[in-house]
Amino acid sequence: MRKIIIMPMLLASFIVFSQEKIVTKSAAITFEASVPSFQPVAGTNSNVTFVFNPATGEVASLALMKGFQFEMALMEEHFNENYMETDKYPKAIFRGQIERFDIKSLTEDYKDYIIKGKLELHGKSKDIKATAKITKTGPRITIISDFDVNASEFSIPIPSLIKYKLDDRVKIQIIAVLK
């Protein structure tokens, strides 16, 4: 009798714990802080870790700041040494929740969602509200999120000599393809 009760309970616990997170280490973050009439200031990091829990709608991402690549090597050097101070602040972390997320409602058409969470960058932490488009094609889930942050809110130093060439408002996009 005891075996009859224990076996279904054991199987049920495996089902509960099988709701695993999906992880990719090849999500991409692109940012742009360009001002019209000047050379574009943009960087891309294609080695971002992105974690998604489809059961709860929780998301998290980690980007190593030295992973951002630029069109010009000099921009990359200034980004790492002067602005982001990557030796002191090596990573950016976002943890959030997709509002009203239901995995069963996903289709091949993109559906709009709101993600609320916290962005930790340059030693500061700030609440973020971002829009996201999410689709599911077979086993693959794609999440595309866009949001803006102000460099000044994260105490990112921009020398007055070039302040007119950089926008304080930085446009950020993250793309995660999860399988």
From TrEMBL:
Residues 1-18 form the signal peptide. It holds the Pfam family YceI. This is YceI family protein. Residues 20-179 form the Lipid/polyisoprenoid-binding YceI-like domain. Keywords: Signal. InterPro entries: Lipid/polyisoprenoid-bd_YceI, TTHA0802/YceI-like_sf.
